[in-house]
Amino acid sequence: MPDVKDIISQIRTPLDSKDETLIRRAFDFAAAAHGDQKRYSGEPYFIHVFETAKILAELGMGPTTIAAGLLHDTLEDAAVKPEIIEKEFDKEILFLVDGVTKLGKLRYRGAERHLESLRKFFVAMAHDLRVLIIKLADRLHNMRTLNHVPAEKQGRIANETLEVYASLAYRLSMRKLSREFENLAFPYVYPKESETVKALLKQKTQAAEGRLGKFGHSVVKALAKEGLRDIRTETRTKSLYSLWKKLLRKGMDMEKIHDFLALRIIVPTVADCYRALGIIHAHWRPLPGRIKDYIAVPKPNGYQSIHTTIFTGDGGTLEIQIRTEEMHQKAEYGVAAHLFYKEGPKKAENGFSPLVWLKNLLPFAGSNRGNNATAKKDAAAEVPEWIRQIAEIQKEAVSQNEFLQNLETDFFQYRVFVFTPKGDVIDLPLDSSPIDFAYAIHSDIGDHIAAAKVNGKMVSLDTALKNGDIVEIITKDSSRPSAKWLEIAKTAAAKKKIRAALENLKR
Ligand code: MN
Q: Is the pTM of this model over 0.70?
């Protein structure tokens, strides 16, 4: 039977008695509200909201969000009146529960409904990130129990999980979540492909995993000998889905994938990270060109770690990732861990400021960087750029199909992060060109592209940009867009502006 203690024990910060009472009251309220309702699995419905709350506690969310997680299905599935939630709890909890209910209202019957739900999804997200995080936790438990759902519903739910939820979790740097979404959904959406990849991976890993265990042991021993004892290791296997995506880009050649298996070493301090790297390189020869210091130069999404690939001495190579516990938590839990380390759940919850930490977490997201003084007053300014762009596209989309298409190519595919010469990060879809880059900066720059430089060298305008490229656009007043640009441009924003410029030229 579910026990409230199992939720409370997951919470990493000390709880005062008021917080604990809140969680206990939400627990009892939800248990009574759902009564003897059952799920497809035959389990009591209450198990579902209990597990959702447990996931939220694991993610590091505060008592208000956990309580709302317990209550998240009371309006919709237990017919509790909103006034009752407000009376028994408060406005804030009702707001969260109501937000999650609105997101869940749509059962995705066909494209139109699907579309509508996506819109609400983003509107709600822009409103309060906690609503989205509760929805992610809710979906995670539903995915974990998807095998009990009637077969005809499974594919649709899994597909949506892959396209929407996994992508969003990824964008919020919640890797642990996005990986689990992918692993759970992939076999339902692409049964054949998932079998193929599984077989490919199995061939590779069976031998590798055995060696890895032994190898991890010798690494720990080497580090301990040099006095680095307070460490832990874990192995990371690439999710089948992300492996498949990578294989598609590499011609299904498993030999070209170097990071399907990695050894993680988690140490207490940043200084220990560099010491560990030195000790490892002294014992095992590193592969040239694969040492990446994401501690000194974090990835645009804030990811930090040192990566190196070494020869293990038995003919194989292995990627090693070295990081502190805090870096590890942020890499795995993203937004939630950021909250935990930077502000503490209390402050963020009371201050109602989840979008502030989202902005901090995604330094590439806001054009209003360094504008903290006005940040609190202007909630709209806290909405990340890419979410605002979605809102713009949905306002202007000619047809609903076009909206869905734009959404897919712009936001749910792999992204590249490139830099302006000043070091600003621009977030673009994979295979974007300097034309997309130029329009992402300003339509005036886009409309007058004369030439482009990538990393200091002149390139043609159809060059596919790569992560970390520094892109410089050379403009000329006399330059004008051509019809060919339409074929080159990847982003909807660039295409739209090119079309408008071409129309103008015709006139
Ligand atoms: Mn639910």
A: no
